[in-house]
Amino acid sequence: MAGFLIAFLGGSRVQISGPTAAFATIVAGIVATDGMEGLVAATIIAGVMLVLMGLLKLGTLIRFVPYTMTTWTPETWKCSLDE
Q1: Residue 36 in 3-state DSSP?
Q2: How far, in Å, CA of 72 to CA of 49, rounded?
Q3: 73 burial class (0-12, 13-18, 19+ CB within 10 angstroms)?
Q4: CA dihedral angle for residue 8, residue 9, residue 15, residue 21, rounded to 10 degrees
Q5: pTM of the full predicted structure?
Q6: Per-state percent for the chain, helix, strand, coil, to nearest 5
Q7: Fewest CB within 10 angstroms: 4, 14, 15, 38, which?
Q8: Contact 2, 17 (CB under 8 A)
Q9: Could you read off the pLDDT of 27-49 as tens digits, one per residue?
Q10: SS3 assignment for 49-77
């Protein structure tokens, strides 16, 4: 909801907010340590993992992931993990 409000009420077309902002820091870290080749490799590996999990019907494992981890923003994950 916060990301929607930020995007709706202001900012620029190059500004990022919400979960995208947290993901951008992860991507920047991969590029900083492994370069663009590392980012491409990480993207391909993640895609292969998703396809394999789908083919193996592993989607039911999501029930073992806490609700807060799947719905809240990264800022609230820390609070959830600290409990």
Answers
A1: helix
A2: 23
A3: middle
A4: -70
A5: 0.56
A6: 80, 0, 20
A7: 14
A8: yes
A9: 888 999 999 999 999 999 999 99
A10: HHHHHHHCCHHHHHHHCCHHHHHCCHHHH
